[in-house]
Amino acid sequence: MATQREFQENTKERIREPKQYHVIMLNDDFTSMEFVVQILMDIFHKDALSAETIMLGVHRSGRAIVGTYSYDIASTKVNAATARAKAEGYPFRMLIEEA
Fold it and tell me: What residues have CB less than 8 Å from 32, skipping those under 6 apart?
């Protein structure tokens, strides 16, 4: 019969947190600021003030990190945002980069 110590040694596993990825929004001259703010609020769950601050950062700097997530979540959010932009006729672009 295994002792308590042997049991503990055999059950230790290496649990790693998933890698994190930045979702980066890129500026363009065609996507409306209102649309960007709405995407940030609806898909990235930002409040109105944060969404507007991020949108202005993208507008001024050309790009901004809008959130950091596991790859699956980042990818889902980017796909939802770009699909919505495409449906509205905007050339909106986002990137996913390892944090």
Answer: 90
Half-sphere exposure of 60 (CA within 13 A, CB side): 6
Please report the beta strands in the chain, taking only residues with DSSP state E, as ranges in sequence order: 20-26, 63-70, 93-98
Domain ranges in the chain are 27-98
Model confidence, pTM = 0.83
Tens digits of residue pLDDT in 34-67: 999 999 999 999 999 999 999 999 999 999 999 9
Domain 27-98 has CATH 3.40.50.2300: no
Q: 22 near 70, Cβ under 8 Å?
A: no
In angstroms, the CA 45 to CA 41 distance is 5
- Short-list 41, 98, 45, CA closest to 75: 98
Size of the chain in residues = 99
